[in-house]
Design a protein that fits this description.
- This protein has one domain.
- It is built from five helices and eight strands; from the N terminus they run ββββαααααββββ.
- The strands form two sheets. Strands 3-4-5-6-7-8 form a six-stranded mixed beta sheet. A two-stranded antiparallel ribbon has the order 1-2.
- The longest helix is centred in the middle third of the chain and has 15 residues.
- The chain is elongated and about 50 Å long.
């Protein structure tokens, strides 16, 4: 089986196969990992169908940011708690470096969203609950192990998760 983005796939004993995305995939890819979740039952047709969604990564990223921004209106939402972690649980000096600010107090929702970087994409063609996941971190070099993840189900509904 061959992925149009990751090349030949060999799941072997693992349920994940993937590679670093080539630069230029719809304006994304430098440093982003691409994973395909499957097993010996995954076929080329299912993979091809799933990868069609990645033809317009910018639209998917925009939808993720809409979901993140909508959640920031609720202080107990996943996006707000993720933002809070980066402002309250790490040293002020690191906060300033992460967000390019002089003090963490000036990190608005807009500044927070502007510093989210796509670092990974996972597709699960046979899944029903978690068909596509876009992983975002503060900064491309992921200085923390925390990810804000936009997850699509088979019906196209987007939910937000905080993972590490």
């Amino acid at each position: 089986m061959t992925s149009r983005f990751a090349g030949p796939l060999d799941f072997g004993d693992d349920a994940l196969a993937g590679a670093m995305l080539p630069a230029g995939i719809d304006g994304f890819g430098v440093g982003a990992w691409y994973w395909i979740q499957g097993d010996e039952t995954l076929n080329q047709s299912e993979l091809d169908k799933a990868e069609v969604a990645l033809s317009d990564v910018q639209t998917l990223v925009a939808a993720a940011f809409v979901a993140f921004a909508a959640e920031l209106t609720d202080p107990q939402s996943t996006s707000s708690l993720f933002r809070g972690f980066h402002l309250e649980e790490i040293p002020e000096e690191m906060v300033c470096d992460l967000f390019d600010v002089d003090t963490g107090e000036v990190v608005t929702d807009g500044v927070f969203l502007d510093h989210l970087v796509l670092v990974g994409i996972t597709i699960s063609p046979a899944a029903t609950e978690r068909v596509l996941a876009l992983d975002f971190a503060i900064g491309a070099d992921k200085p923390t192990d925390q990810l804000l993840v936009a997850v699509w189900d088979r019906n196209g509904a987007v939910t937000v998760h905080h993972e590490s």
